[in-house]
């Protein structure tokens, strides 16, 4: 078992790749009473075109199948796994993103028992046509709920503009029509392909004894038979297709909303550390230009173009990277135009100074250290943010290393006029 000391944050991370290919990380935090376990597979809603395990022919499966599979894994022949966790004093949950599916539990006792339950239920699928059909109604209701959420609709509105040909613009849960087409065989096909131990990561954080827990995981995995690992081949449409420059929709809202998106058209660094630097430098650039303490933000706020709802996010994952800036406003087109102007002319902006960058890096580090108090945050972020051999705990060093020249460089690389798109949401008349 490998052991990495992070002196700056006073953490020790234990790491091992098991013979079946499963990657395990253990992070003891014995001052806490709680323990979190998170079991993730590198498989999400965009992975709907691939070569199935044991085949050489490409297939396309219905949209929303990764999320459907996440729901179904909790149901077994002898009952519901949620109940079992409850009986063992743990709470359980799961979520699906564009590129990952994760299963988790949190508990204050019976850590070993709950961890065994987590490993066993994820690694023992049980689907029948009857149970699959029953689930369709439940997920159909969930899709309807998302469709009634204006912020959710707005997010997928801009994604549809930026990635009209790519599965990224399709709701993670799919559509009512697409889930109707899902069969038990489809679920088994996706499970066998993507739930291989070599495509999965187990992360446990909290009150734990690393050696003892690793031994339990080894024993559990050695007792199971897994088919030999097979390289996963996924297919995606060309990502550099046309961007829809502008679109809008009406919804049951009381005030106009806007979102300005930028699609990443630049070639990303291949190496994990440089990729994490790229992401951090861009986040710093957006904070400098449009964070809530910047002059640009204050001016737009005082001019009535934005309010407290204004915010932005930069997303970077395999297959895509994009930024979105959004908010509620009485002047949506004017607000989008102003944000776009600030971004396109970032090099001349007074906000980009060494002094402001130094202050912002201190603030970012302060927020980072604060988040380390939350086991849930660590567990969720750790598996979402694996950049090659770089982990969440390498971030302080990366933040400290970024200079103004790095921030300007990533801005020039990412911000391109042809990469912008606008999406508006207006109240129903």
From TrEMBL:
Which InterPro entries would you find in this protein's record?
Metalloenz_LuxS/M16, MPP/UQCRC_Complex, Pept_M16_N, Peptidase_M16_C
Q: Which GO terms describe its molecular function?
A: metal ion binding
Residue intervals of the Peptidase M16 N-terminal domain: 51-175
Domain Peptidase M16 C-terminal, first and last residues per copy: 182-363
UniProt superkingdom: Bacteria
Q: Name one Pfam family in it.
A: Peptidase_M16
**Name of the protein this chain belongs to:** M16 family peptidase
Organism per entry: Enterococcus hirae
Instruction: Show the taxonomic lineage.
Output: Bacteria, Bacillati, Bacillota, Bacilli, Lactobacillales
